[in-house]
Design a protein that fits this description.
mainly alpha
């Protein structure tokens, strides 16, 4: 049947082309004609032309590709209530339990952490720990969310019997003396900002001096080793 129908259509096409038969007009409902499709087709053509033009400009170097803006997280400026040493200690602890080295602590890594701290949690308890600070709802802890745990601990916002409270208590990172600083007046806020800035600069100088002393000690040890080598030549 399909072959006969195809043969009939081909014969009719040949007769129309040879003039032996006039083509028959077919009525098309108004909603099916091309009058409404033309604007859509024009818009699609215009959008495609714009994309092709921009691609050509990029290839020719006329304009530069726009990179998506990426917000850089700086723990020292966002978590000013903690000293540089405290943040570095937290970072060291975070990296220790980030077994996958992907910048996150997932449920199993958190389970291992709590077992190492001798405060094991149930599966539900671990999920609740993550949920309390999981701002992006990806069911894992980023370093920023890890710092939020200690911010909540310093502010007294963690329940005493919670897993997060046990984590901060057993981590050997003391945040109780720092607290979360909140100035009540504009003047106090200004004084606080100056104090934070001075402390920040002082901590950087201390780190630089410690590194300088370490480098000097290494130079002295190398010099002493060379003298010892020369003595045996």
């Amino acid at each position: 049947m399909a072959t006969d129908e195809l043969s009939s259509k081909l014969n009719r096409r040949l007769q129309i082309e040879e003039g032996a038969e006039e083509p028959v007009a077919v009525d098309v409902p108004e909603h099916q004609n091309g009058s409404e499709e033309k604007p859509c087709a024009a818009n699609a053509d215009s959008e495609l032309s714009a994309k092709l033009l921009r691609r050509g400009e990029l290839n020719d170097g006329v304009c530069e590709a726009q990179q998506p803006s990426v917000k850089v997280f700086n723990p020292f400026t966002e978590f000013k209530e903690f000293s540089r040493k405290q943040i570095k200690d937290m970072e060291k602890m975070f990296k220790t339990y980030d077994a996958g080295k992907d910048g996150y602590i997932d449920l199993m890594e958190l389970k291992l952490m709590m077992e190492k701290l001798e405060a094991p949690q149930t599966h539900l308890g671990l999920k609740n720990m993550i949920k309390e600070v999981d701002e992006d709802l990806d069911n894992r802890l980023s370093f920023r969310e890890f710092l939020l745990i200690f911010r909540k601990a310093a502010a007294g916002e963690l329940a005493e019997d919670s897993g997060l409270c046990a984590l901060t208590r057993l981590s050997e990172i003391d945040v109780s003396t720092e607290g979360v600083k909140g100035a009540k007046t504009f003047f106090e806020a200004k004084v606080q900002a100056i104090s934070d800035s001075n402390r920040f600069e002082a901590e950087i100088r201390q780190e630089q001096e410690a590194k300088k002393k370490q480098n000097e000690d290494q130079k002295q040890r190398r010099a002493a080793f060379k003298e010892l080598q020369a003595a045996f030549k």
